[in-house]
Design goal:
By secondary structure, the protein is an alpha+beta fold. Helices cover 26% and strands 33% of the residues. The chain is built from six helices and twelve strands. A five-stranded antiparallel β-sheet has the order 7-8-12-11-10, with no helix packed on it. The longest helix has 18 residues. It starts with 8 loop residues before the first helix and ends in a 16-residue tail after the last strand.
Length: 272
């Protein structure tokens, strides 16, 4: 870049993500947060929000050896980046036209191999070669993004690319569709406050997720609309959410198996 040159946010992101411009990282940090330390504070706050427990940022560019992370944490970062359409487009480009430089080239040697569409390369002497990659796969008719990260590869980005490619292959062969909840399965109970009757709430649809060995699912039931008299069978009673450590995998409506009972006509004993 040249002193005084004006670049768009998109151009800066292109220079940051394709040839890994450290000067661009510092420029974006100051533009976004006013200073590099302020931006680093935002980075660490986001890492905490994302539950990246092994990640600490000391600078915007990763040149400071005090910046550290793990492949598992960086998989989360790469997956979050790939949720953004504009960034998905940028990291999928082998090269782009750019002012002054003319052409900027992507340093990711795995790009385009076996359907790899990103994500980001990096190298410093303390970190050695680091590479995050991602590829689309179809599992049981569902299109899913598989992400792999290798770090501290001593023989360069070519070796890191080979490691990532093997990781992606291993992951893709272990993926399968799994019916976590079958339609009609009782998942909750509804008790009307004016009645002693308990009504089952069952899954209105099946919850089919793309799973892998060792996946741990958690369930959470959220109540639906407030109950009232004359609610028919089949009415929405709530929602069952299935989550993995990476986020929500499926949401299933829960339906009443029977109507809400009317007010009881049974006499109630009173005192005096």
């Amino acid at each position: 870049v040249r002193l005084g040159e004006r670049l768009t946010e998109l151009q800066l992101l292109e220079a940051l993500l394709i040839p890994s411009g450290d000067n661009i990282a510092r420029t974006l940090a100051v533009w976004d947060a006013g200073s590099q330390p302020a931006f680093v504070a935002r980075m660490n706050a986001l890492a905490e929000e994302m539950d990246l427990r092994s990640t600490h940022y000391a600078d915007p560019a990763g040149l400071d050896p005090r910046s550290s992370s793990t492949p598992a944490d960086q998989v989360e970062v790469a997956a979050a980046l790939m949720e953004q359409p504009a960034l998905r487009y940028v990291v999928s480009q082998a090269r782009l036209a750019f002012p002054v430089a003319g052409t900027i080239w992507n340093y990711n040697p795995a790009l385009g191999v076996d359907g790899i569409v990103g994500v980001k390369s990096g190298f410093t002497d303390p970190a050695q070669a680091c590479l995050a990659t991602a590829a689309w796969d179809v599992v049981g008719g569902r299109r899913v993004l598989v992400v792999a990260v290798s770090m501290h590869q001593p023989d360069g980005l070519g070796e890191a690319a080979q490691v990532d490619e093997q990781l992606l292959t291993n992951a893709e062969t272990s993926l399968e569709t799994y019916t976590a909840v079958a339609a009609g399965t009782p998942e909750a109970r509804v008790v009307a406050p004016w009645s002693r009757a308990t009504i089952e709430a069952t899954a209105g649809t099946a919850a089919v997720v793309v799973a892998w060995p060792g996946l741990h699912l958690t369930e959470q039931v959220s109540p639906g609309p407030a109950l009232h008299l004359h609610v028919p069978a089949g009415a929405l009673a709530g929602t069952l959410t299935l989550s993995a450590p990476d986020g929500t995998l499926a949401s299933v409506p829960l339906r009443l198996d029977a109507p809400i009972p009317p007010l009881s006509s049974t006499p109630v004993a009173t005192d005096g």
